[in-house]
Design goal:
Shape: rod-shaped
Organism: Siccirubricoccus soli
Structural class: alpha+beta
Keywords: Coiled coil, Membrane, Transmembrane, Transmembrane helix
Radius of gyration: 48 Å
Number of helices: 4
Order of helices and strands: HEEEEEHHEEEEEEEEEH
Largest sheet: 6 strands, antiparallel, barrel
Pfam families: Beta-barrel_AAEA, BSH_RND
Number of strands: 14
Protein name: HlyD family secretion protein
């Protein structure tokens, strides 16, 4: 093999001339890079352990029945209160009507007892009036008996008249005693009617509660959207027999209400604060979205797991923990945000996040050229 030929003289001269230029370019690039890292780069904390999240509410049946109608399609926009699924209502309407009839009967019984009580009060008033009449009759008969007895003793009046007046006195006293007994009996009936009225009131309250439950059960035959969103994960089928607690469909919040959960390492959290700006890059399109830190979780993600670690037992292995950070979007792109999508989050932890961030902008600010 022949050895490589040495470079020619002109080429060597060109290399000697370009070497200082290359050194200057490299030194300048290193200076720019170092300046950018010192002022910006060391304050940027990023992670690719970030996923979109959002409220997803599974809707389950609260009563037993057969699916009669499915009124929404998969992935359809829905509004709060919109009927999504309807169960058969015939049996539940019959139960509601039966409860309404029971309530009407209880109210009629209560009204009858109250009317009887009013009637009894009128009876008591009539008996009291008869007592006053009997009292007046007894007074008159007593006075007549005394007067006729005086005349008979004096030989002026007949003994027969005296005896008749005495009998009238005794009849008047008996009539008064009978009227007083009737009053006692009439008043004794009031506590019985009051007890019956209380029982009737309890029956009315129970019947009203039963009607309310029946109306609630009838309302539960319609599965409604709890908020504006998108319907999905439909499990119900026409004619399917469902039981209480069985999941039928889910509703997710609108895309503009989603957020990002970024799991940062504990070594990245020292300067993080709510409100700091975040740049989110979505894996699905590569688009960058502006966001900000909403809050930091109160504990590491491991402690919220089904089986949290117990470091006090067994062999201990130190592992860098991650803390979930909730990030809200400043300019959500409704067509792109879906819970579960992956993303990369980069937090600017500088004291002045509005300061220049680009390499040339940082260099210009360092040189005092920033306008």
């Amino acid at each position: 093999m022949q050895p490589a030929a040495p470079p020619s003289a002109p080429r060597r001269r060109l290399l000697r001339r370009l070497r200082p230029v290359a050194l200057v370019v490299l030194l300048g690039a290193a200076t720019l890079g170092g300046d950018w890292w010192w002022q910006v780069g060391r304050f940027q904390e990023s992670t690719d352990n970030a996923y979109l999240a959002g409220d997803i509410t599974p809707l389950a049946a609260r009563i037993e029945g057969d699916v009669a109608e499915i009124l929404v399609a998969d992935n359809q926009q829905v509004t709060a209160g919109q009927v999504l699924i309807r169960l058969e209502q015939q049996d539940w309407r019959a139960r509601r009507d039966s409860a309404a009839a029971s309530l009407a009967a209880a109210e009629a019984t209560q009204a009858t007892i109250l009317a009887q009580r009013q009637q009894q009060l009128a009876t008591i008033a009539a008996v009291e009036a008869s007592i006053r009449q009997a009292e007046a009759e007894r007074v008159r008969a007593t006075q007549d008996a005394v007067r006729y007895e005086t005349l008979a003793v004096g030989g002026v009046g007949a003994r027969q008249a005296a005896e008749r007046s005495l009998a009238d006195q005794r009849k008047a006293e008996a009539a008064l005693a009978a009227a007083q007994a009737n009053l006692t009996a009439a008043r004794a009936a009031l506590p019985v009617l009051d007890a019956q009225a209380a029982g009737a009131e309890s029956q009315v309250i129970g019947a009203r509660a039963a009607l309310a439950l029946a109306e609630s059960s009838l309302a539960y035959t319609e599965i409604r959207a709890p908020f504006d969103g998108v319907a999905g994960n439909r499990a119900a089928q026409i004619g399917q027999h469902v039981r209480p607690g069985q999941m039928l469909i889910s509703v997710a919040r609108p895309p503009e209400q989603h957020w990002l959960v970024a799991n940062f390492k504990e070594t990245q959290l020292a300067r993080m604060r709510p409100g700091q700006p975040v740049t989110v890059t979505l894996d699905v399109t590569g688009a960058e979205l502006r966001a900000h830190i909403d809050s930091l979780a109160p504990a590491t993600g491991a402690l919220f797991s089904l089986l949290p670690p117990e470091n006090a037992t067994g062999n201990f292995t130190r592992i860098v923990q991650r803390v979930p950070v909730k990030i809200r979007f400043d300019d959500p792109a409704a067509a792109l945000l879906r819970p579960g999508l992956s993303a990369v989050a980069e937090v600017d932890t500088r004291d002045d996040p509005s300061a220049p961030r680009g390499v040339w902008a940082v260099a210009a600010a360092t040189l005092g050229l920033r306008p």
